[in-house]
Design a protein that fits this description.
Blueprint (H helix, E strand, L loop, with lengths): L7 E4 L3 H11 L5 E4 L16 E5 H9 L11 E3 L1 E6 L5 E5 L9 E5 H13 L4 E4 L4 E5 L5 E5 L4 E4 L2 E3 L6 H5 L5 E16 L6 E7 L2 E7 L4 E9 H9 L2 H12 L6 E4 L3 E9 L4 E2 L2 E3 L5 E2 L7 H22 L6 H30 L5 H14 L1 H11 L20
Helix pairs in contact: 1-3, 1-7, 7-8
């Protein structure tokens, strides 16, 4: 586009923004990423102590953009999942064999993913990482969209992608402010040691406060994501290690043997948020800038990575045809493509929390029956897994492990 300094500008160099930069960068187009935190800054929220449960489809995306090999050794495969309702007999056992897959997903430290994506970007001469730099002002009009940064730069492109999280300054300027609802709980996350081999099995155990998830990592380590009332979460973060492990043992039980140690503990607020539409004039929001969901079922980042895959396909199609990537028609096509899956995941995650925390008389018995019915019905297991693994419906090239056609 006339007057543009780049073919694409991305605000936010966290996991979603960096993944899109890699996907767009392989086309040879000029891409700029604006990121507030330096690469080695410990405060980078996307590359902290947390782990991410990636679906098999998300692994395919990272393979396609050339980032998976760098994290493969740190990725713990999930081959089965045990879902239960604490204190009751209902349980469902889901296994990779139900869908004929090598794994249902992988547990990867976010820092490992961040390093791999940053290294991949460093191999692309056409991708410019402006870091540390902060995007502070937006200009929208008939021509290219322009972004001003705090260090005096002015970047122009046919399209600006917002990948800067749920408190996006540019999003508010573009009229794309998230509508959020806070949950009364927090998520306590940590890596814990276990005395028994986990056998690559994950656990999703529902308690009165929400899910307690344990995900297999390499060795006898598991990633914990424990939903708790805010005051309890903060108290357990501050507790000594022995007190914390005793509380976790009491809440989860002995199926994995004894919890032997705990790494750094953090507690994060939980919320549900979405945009009525993720697009504005030559601006599109992806990842947490477009939607925030409860971590139950591990859908959050996978949903954002699907944004990346769909948007990369849209960009490549437009570039191949010589079309303007920032027109209302192009952005509407992307928004329409994403809306159905985003709404479905929002309903799934919020519905599960309501279902398993409700004390309505008779509902616990129905939950038990429901879990047992799922456990006895392989077609239902297959359908459930295909959806949560991101393999349902139309699949963009990246989700199939291939680069979008054309675009170079």
């Amino acid at each position: 586009m006339n007057g543009a300094t780049h073919d694409l500008v991305i605000a936010g160099g966290g996991l979603a923004g960096a993944s899109l930069a890699c996907a767009a960068g392989v086309t040879g187009r000029r891409v700029a990423i604006i990121e507030s935190f330096a690469v080695d800054d410990e405060r980078q929220p996307s590359f902290d102590e947390r782990t991410i449960a990636l679906t098999l489809s998300s692994r395919r995306v990272f393979e396609a953009i050339g980032a998976w090999a760098a994290v493969a050794d740190e990725a713990g495969a999930i081959e089965s999942i045990h879902v239960s309702d604490r204190g009751r007999f209902g349980a469902a056992r889901l296994d990779r064999r139900h869908v004929g897959a090598e794994a249902l997903g992988y547990v990867v430290p976010t820092r490992a993913l961040g390093r791999a994506l940053t290294a991949r970007i460093g191999t692309m001469d056409n991708v410019e990482l402006l870091c540390p730099a902060t995007a502070e002002r937006l200009e929208q009009g008939a021509g290219p969209v322009a972004v001003h940064t705090t260090d005096g730069r002015r970047l122009q492109a046919p399209l600006l992608v917002l990948a800067d999280g749920g408190r996006s300054t540019l999003g508010r300027q573009a009229g794309l402010a998230l509508q959020t609802r806070d949950y009364p709980q927090m998520a306590l996350v940590a890596v814990v040691g276990v005395s028994r081999d986990h056998g690559r099995r994950a656990y999703e155990r529902f308690t009165g406060h929400g899910p307690l998830a344990l995900l297999p990592m390499t060795g006898r380590r598991m990633a914990l994501a424990w939903t708790l009332p805010a005051d309890q979460a903060r108290a357990l973060v501050d507790a000594d290690e022995a007190g914390f492990l005793d509380a976790l043992q009491a809440a989860f039980g002995w199926r994995q043997g004894r919890f032997t140690r705990a790494g750094t503990r953090r507690a994060y607020p939980l919320s549900l948020g979405h945009l009525r539409t993720p697009v504005s004039d030559r601006v599109v929001a992806i990842g947490n800038a477009a939607h925030v969901v409860h971590p139950v079922a591990g859908q959050g980042f996978n949903l954002g990575l699907r944004d990346v895959a769909d948007l990369a396909e849209q960009l490549a199609d437009c570039w191949r045809r010589g079309d303007d990537i920032g027109t209302p028609a192009a952005l509407r096509a992307y928004a329409d493509r994403r809306s159905r899956q985003v709404r479905r995941v929002e309903r799934l995650t919020d519905g599960l929390i309501g279902l398993f925390t409700s004390t309505t008389p008779g509902l616990p018995t129905l939950r038990t029956l429901g879990l047992n019915l799922v456990d006895l019905c392989p077609p239902v297991k297959r359908m459930l897994l295909e959806r949560t693994m991101g393999r349902h419906g139309r699949l963009p090239h990246l989700v199939r492990g291939a680069l979008p056609r054309g675009g170079g």
